[in-house]
Design brief:
The protein is of the alpha/beta class and 345 residues long. It contains twelve helices and twelve strands. β7, α7 and β8 form a beta-alpha-beta unit. The chain is elongated.
Length: 345
């Protein structure tokens, strides 16, 4: 077993990649496997993830074995070839199988995917149409206010941010949020980071453009981004808080970064340059020469941001809480897995 992953509750230590074999899958009793890389495996083993912890405890009470296995493509392929066990993949590599689900954190802390085909860009949300009309506007506004208090007012996002107000950002700007320059493995980018920046500069007119690097940007990527810093021309490289930049922006630009989703908390229009599962509430750009038209289309529309957040987080994803377990069990039952336990239902 792999060192460094604490045991807690029904979980043992994380198994290494080569532990999972076709022979073992054939031989062991019904087992619920969680496939995760080190960071998520550690959190799972320590009981940090309440939703998946509740699922594991429920399955164990029903007589299922519970294992955490280091994620690998080979292990995923082995897993889906044996239909008897149930596998939860905590990684973005998509696959469909009758015995597989995908569960990773969403763009906002406290909400998780629990999806049949993939996560994020490959989740079922990418294939669904969003219709805001049947939803209560009052309910959506109340939910939005809760999210604003939790994330915007607390200056909270996935990575540590500068204090609010630490660096000025001019209101009415365009804001571009950078990310990894490398082509994605499991989805499509229509434009590169550099393509988006240059298209934004060409389309910005008199508006200032703020370029916000990602906290994980490499030194080489930072050097490229720094070349565009030209305050006299209205182009600024900024390290201000994401929430300060979003609050000041007239329009938010990104390829597929999660900050495009966070922009909805600020009720800001978004232009994307790649495949996402939140495209329904944004404009997707496939040709950089059309950036000005895309910005115009995004800023002229009255977007139903509050209702979209409800639809995405509450109706498609799940809250990281043991209270979400009945929804998990219902989704598994639709796949043919009935994890019954005494006293439940």
């Amino acid at each position: 077993m792999k060192a460094g992953v604490s045991q807690g509750g029904v979980f043992g230590a994380q198994r290494p990649v080569d532990w999972l074999t076709a022979r073992r899958l054939d031989a062991v009793p019904d087992t619920l496997y969680f496939h995760a890389r080190d960071r998520l495996a550690t959190g799972l083993g320590k009981g940090y993830f309440r939703l998946l912890g509740a699922l594991a405890e429920h399955a164990a009470a029903a007589g299922w074995g519970i294992e955490i296995v280091e994620f690998s493509g080979r292990g995923q392929d082995l897993a889906v070839a044996n239909p008897r066990h149930l596998h939860v993949f905590m990684d973005d590599r998509p696959v469909y199988a009758p015995n597989a689900v995908h569960s990773v954190p969403t763009y906002l802390h406290g909400y998780w995917y629990f999806d049949e085909i993939g996560s994020r860009n490959n989740s079922l949300q990418r294939l669904r149409r969003f219709d805001p009309r049947p939803m209560s506007g009052d309910w959506a506004r109340a939910f939005h206010a809760q999210l604003v208090a939790k994330f915007v007012d607390a200056n909270m996002t996935k990575f540590a941010q500068a204090d609010r107000g630490a660096e000025p950002v001019e209101p009415g700007c365009l804001a571009f949020f950078a990310q990894d320059f490398n082509p994605p493995r499991y989805h499509r980018h229509h434009l590169t980071v550099v393509d988006m920046i240059e298209a934004a500069i060409a389309a910005k007119g008199r508006r200032p453009l703020y370029i916000k690097p990602h906290p994980n940007q490499t030194l080489d990527e930072m050097e490229v981004l720094s070349r565009y810093h030209a305050p006299k021309a209205g182009v600024h490289l900024t390290h201000a808080s994401i929430h300060d930049v979003l609050a000041a922006a007239d329009c938010v630009l990104t390829v597929t970064s999660a900050v495009g989703f966070e922009a909805f908390l600020h009720r800001k229009p978004v232009v994307l340059g790649g495949q996402t599962d939140f495209w329904q509430n944004a404009v997707t750009l496939t040709d950089g020469r059309q950036m000005a038209a895309a910005i115009e289309a995004a800023t002229q529309r009255d977007w139903p941001h509050e209702k979209f957040l409800v639809w995405f987080l509450r109706q498609n994803c799940l809250e990281d809480s043991a209270a979400s377990l009945p929804q998990v069990l219902e989704r598994l039952a639709r796949k043919g897995f009935f994890l019954s336990a005494p006293g439940f239902y």
